[in-house]
Amino acid sequence: MIRFLVYRLLSAIPVLFVVSLVTFLIMWLVPGDISAEIGGVDATPEDLAAIRERLGLDRPLLERALNWYAALLQGDLGQSYTLNRSVLGAVLERLPVTLSLAGIALVLATAMGMLLGILAAVRHNTLLDQGAMVTALVGLSIPDFWFGIVMIILFGVWLGWLPTGGFVAFSESPVDWARSMTLPAFTLAITQMGVIARMTRSAMLDVLSQDYIRTARAKGMRARAVIFRHGLRNAMIPIITVVGVLSGVLLSGAVVIETVFSLPGVGRLIIGAIQRRDFPIIQGGLLITACVFVFVNILVDIAYAWFDPRGRDDS
Q1: Is the CATH code 1.10.3720.10 the one for domain 91-311?
Q2: pTM > 0.85
Q3: Has residue 213 got a pLDDT over 50?
């Protein structure tokens, strides 16, 4: 297992390098000039030239790339052009909001999706099965930004149960933190639970048709034990695969949800940086997000070994 984890960590290095390189090239090849954003409408050509020289934008692209990678190897993601602070500090300050949103949404989507999938598989070809799959399909079909607006109007404006936006840190008030995260997390989860529900149903139907399941039932084992101890555990591999993929989808979907609910997360930070052409923030935010996604994939591989003894290696 240790050898496998070391291999996965080393294999993540070229992935992160490609992500950083593509991001760097795209950011520096798009049209526009950050010096005009910083200098304002009254800036003269001389002022704009001085700003570009101060930021190093007048240097060749290759030289800028080499300087950025040299700083990156030292843990320095550079300085923001517009925030007047380090990129690493700005991203890490907002990263807990995004991770909380995506993490809660992933737990909710997994719980609701697996529950629907198990019910649909156990009650195969019944109204319950059809209702569960229709619910999953509706969740897949709803745009998350539209559903978020509906949730705001319903629970925030009409009923007044939850805040319509904003964020309260957990350290300030755990209750208000939970209230501020409920609508965004549920909105993000409901649009993705359908994938988990359909995969759970398919995997459970395949497992429940196996001979050892029929043998367990013939021995008089309780239905709950057959479904969860023998059925669900052996159906977890494809479900884990989907959950691992959805973790990246939820991280990217958090960009839209953070904007809808005015959450100060990394996604909203990157959107603002794109509008201001603050390239170091964009590069650093995307790179750190990619690191989180790679880490999640490693956790998924560990879960594989836990649920499938054939994948374990104690060496």
Answers
A1: yes
A2: no
A3: yes
